[in-house]
C-alpha cells in the first residue's frame, strides 16, 4: 500500500481479508474493492495538499505524557471472567491448538 | 577467535526482550508477578475487552529510560503502534509496541574484550500471555488444544536491538552476558533467562570475507541461556557455510534452536512472513520525557558492570592472576561482585572471597543473588579463621543458598561439621603413614607431588572435616 500511484485491486482486498481472517465471497470482494478505493481516493486528496513546513501529528489530541503511577489495583475475579469463556480447563482459557509458534 | 573455515565471516545481530521489574503491567494496574496462580492478574484492559482503555505505566517509562541511558542511547519523544496478528497468546489480536519512533534511539555497548556493539533501538512493548500445549490424550478424545494464562499479557517489555556488528559466536555470548549484567545493574530487570524474563533472538548471516556485502540472514529463536546463544550462532553460521560451499543458496527464514539436539530447524519461511499492518495506537498519546526527568534518572543510575569490574580488580592490585581476572569478570557478569567487595571490606582474605564467589556461589544459579550478604560473609569468616575446611564451607554454602539464608554456624553444627582437633588429625596421619610407607619415604626425600596424595587420604578418612592448610602444615612439620 506504500505505492501510492497504483490503484487498489481485488488481490489487495483478498490479502487484507486473509490477514483479518475474513472469508469473503467474490461479489463481496468486488464491492469492498470499490468501497476501499473510494476511501483511499479521499485520503489521496489529503496527500495532495501542500504541507510544507507543517510538523506531522502523532495524535489528534494536543496531549502527551498521560501516565499512571506504578501501583497495583484490583484485578478481575477469575471465576467471573472464565465463566464468560467458551471453554476452560485448569483455570485457563482452552483454545484449539494453533500450529506453529507465536509470531 | 572465530572457528569458521578460512575466508568466511559471520554477521550477527541480537534482539533481546527483557521484562521490566515494575509492580504492575504496562497499561493496567494488574500485578506483574511471575509464577502467580493462572489468570489471577487479569482485567478488561489486559484481556482486550471492548471499551477498555490503556493508560501507560510511569514506572515502565522510567525503567525503559534507565536501560536506554545505560546503553548510551538517545532518549527521545516516542509513540505507540498496534502490531496486528492472530494468536491466542494475544487477546486483543494486536500487540501495543513502538514502531517508527522508539523511546530509545541509537546507542552502543562496550564488551569486556574491548569491542563495541552498536544498539539500534530499545523500545517499549507489552508481553503476551502464556500458552501451554496439551496433547491428544486430554479429556477431549483425539484433540490437540492449548491452555492460555493471561497473567503475563501486558507485562512491560523492552526490546533491545543490536546493530549487525557481532562477528563471532563468542562475541554474541559476550554481548548477551554484558547486556544481562547491565539490565540487572540498572535495576530495570532481573535478567532471569531460564524463567524467560530475558529472551534472545539472533539474526545470523555469513559472507566470504570481511568486506563482502551481507548475506541472506536467518533469525534464530528459543535461545534460553548464554550457552545456547553461543552454540546456536556457531551452528547456524556453519550450516549456512556448508550450504553455500555446496553451491546452494540461503533462504530467509525463522529457525528454532533445539538445545538437546544442538541444531536449528525451520519454523517458517519468508513466504509465510507476517504482515503486521502496524498503525498508530489511537488510545495512547505520545510520551515526551522532559530533559530534567532524563537527567534525574541518569544521576540516579547505579554503577554499571564495566566500572564495577575495574573497582573489583583494584582490590587485587597488580598481583591479580589471569585466573583471578576471569573470576572477577564472571562475578560481575552474574552481579555477584557486591558479595566479594562486601567480604573484603569486612576483612576476609580477598583471594578467598573471590574464589568462593566466582566458583561456588556463582555455580548455585539465580538463587545465589538472593542470599543475604551478611550470612555469606559470616560463612567466609568461619572458613578464613580455619573453623571450617573448604569442603565443609562449600557444603554449608549450598544449604544456605537453598534455604535463602541462615546462620552458617547453626548449619555447620547441624551437619556435624567441627574442625578436626590437632590430636585427631595426628592420629589419622599416623595411620595413613603406616599404611603407605613407600609414598611416605619418597615424600620425606622431597617429592612434593605426594603432598596431594596424603592430603587426599586425610580428607577421605575424615570425610572432608580436616582443614587442608592444617594438613599441609602437619605434613611439612613431620618431614623436617
Ligand atoms: Zn490488567
From TrEMBL, chain A:
HAMAP family registered for this protein in UniProt: GatC (MF_00122)
GO terms classed as biological process: glutaminyl-tRNAGln biosynthesis via transamidation; regulation of translational fidelity
Q: Report the Pfam families cross-referenced here.
A: GatC
Name of this chain's protein: Unannotated protein
NCBIfam families listed in its UniProt record: gatC (TIGR00135)
Stored InterPro entries: Asp/Glu-ADT_sf_sub_c (IPR036113), GatC (IPR003837)
From TrEMBL, chain B:
Asn/Gln amidotransferase domain residues are 338-479
**GO BP annotations, alphabetical order:** glutaminyl-tRNAGln biosynthesis via transamidation; translation
Q: Which UniProt keywords apply?
A: ATP-binding, Ligase, Nucleotide-binding, Protein biosynthesis
Q: Which Pfam families match?
A: GatB_N, GatB_Yqey
PROSITE patterns, alphabetically? Answer: GATB
Catalysed reaction(s) here are: L-glutamyl-tRNA(Gln) + L-glutamine + ATP + H2O = L-glutaminyl-tRNA(Gln) + L-glutamate + ADP + phosphate + H(+)
Family annotation (InterPro entries): Asn/Gln-tRNA_amidoTrfase_suB/E, Asn/Gln-tRNA_Trfase_suB/E_cat, Asn/Gln_amidotransferase, Asn/Gln_tRNA_amidoTrase-B-like, GatB, GatB_Yqey_C_2, Gln-tRNA_amidoTrfase_suB_CS, Gln_synth/guanido_kin_cat_dom
GO MF term set: ATP binding; glutaminyl-tRNA synthase (glutamine-hydrolyzing) activity
What family name appears in the similarity comment? Belongs to the GatB/GatE family. GatB subfamily.
HAMAP family reported for this sequence: GatB (MF_00121)
PANTHER family membership: GLUTAMYL-TRNA GLN AMIDOTRANSFERASE SUBUNIT B MITOCHONDRIAL AND PROKARYOTIC PET112-RELATED, GLUTAMYL-TRNA(GLN) AMIDOTRANSFERASE SUBUNIT B, MITOCHONDRIAL
This chain belongs to which protein, by name? Unannotated protein
Natural source organism:
freshwater metagenome
Taxonomic lineage from the root: unclassified sequences, metagenomes, ecological metagenomes
